[in-house]
């Protein structure tokens, strides 16, 4: 498979790009080089090679989801510039 001008124009349209003719030519060359590298990799004999699932054997160490250092509602409201005892009061953000 080779990348031609028609395919570059289609990709440009799908990606919502506006490329100059020079950029199209460079992109076409780059994509053709990438395809040739992939074709070269396809020539390799991979029989007996296990697919790679993880790069390393490390296992994630997770912690318990526990509540720590909880602040009471009264303490929280004491820092609020304006509140009604239960909720913060903030200026209106949306305009009509």
Structural description of this entry:
This protein is an all-alpha fold. The chain has a domain of 38 residues: Histone, subunit A (Orthogonal Bundle), CATH 1.10.20. 40% of the residues lie in helices and 0% in strands. It has 3 helices and no strands. The radius of gyration is 29 Å and the shape is flat.
Short overview:
The protein has 96 residues and is an all-alpha fold. The chain has three helices and no strands.
CATH architectural name of the domain at 5-42: Orthogonal Bundle
Structural class: mainly alpha
Q: Strand count, sense and closure of the main sheet?
A: none
Low-confidence stretches: none
Termini distance? 56 Å
CATH topology of the domain at 5-42: Histone, subunit A
Count of separate DSSP helical elements = 3
Q: Helical residue percent?
A: 25-40%
The tally of beta strands, per DSSP, is: 0
What is the mean pLDDT?
89
> If you compute it from the alpha carbons, what radius of gyration comes out, rounded to the nearest whole angstrom?
29 Å
Taken from the alpha-carbon principal axes, the silhouette is flat
CATH C-level category of the domain at 5-42: Mainly Alpha
What is the N-to-C order of secondary-structure elements (H for helix, E for strand)? HHH
Strand content: under 5%
């Amino acid at each position: 498979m080779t990348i031609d001008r028609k395919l570059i124009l289609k990709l440009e349209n799908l990606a919502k790009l506006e490329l100059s003719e020079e950029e199209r030519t460079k992109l076409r060359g780059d994509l053709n080089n990438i395809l040739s590298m992939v074709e070269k990799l396809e020539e390799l004999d991979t029989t007996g090679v296990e697919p790679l699932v993880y790069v390393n054997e490390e296992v994630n160490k997770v912690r318990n989801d526990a509540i720590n250092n909880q602040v009471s509602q009264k303490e929280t409201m004491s820092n609020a510039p304006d509140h009604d005892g239960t909720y913060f009061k903030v200026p209106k953000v949306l305009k009509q």
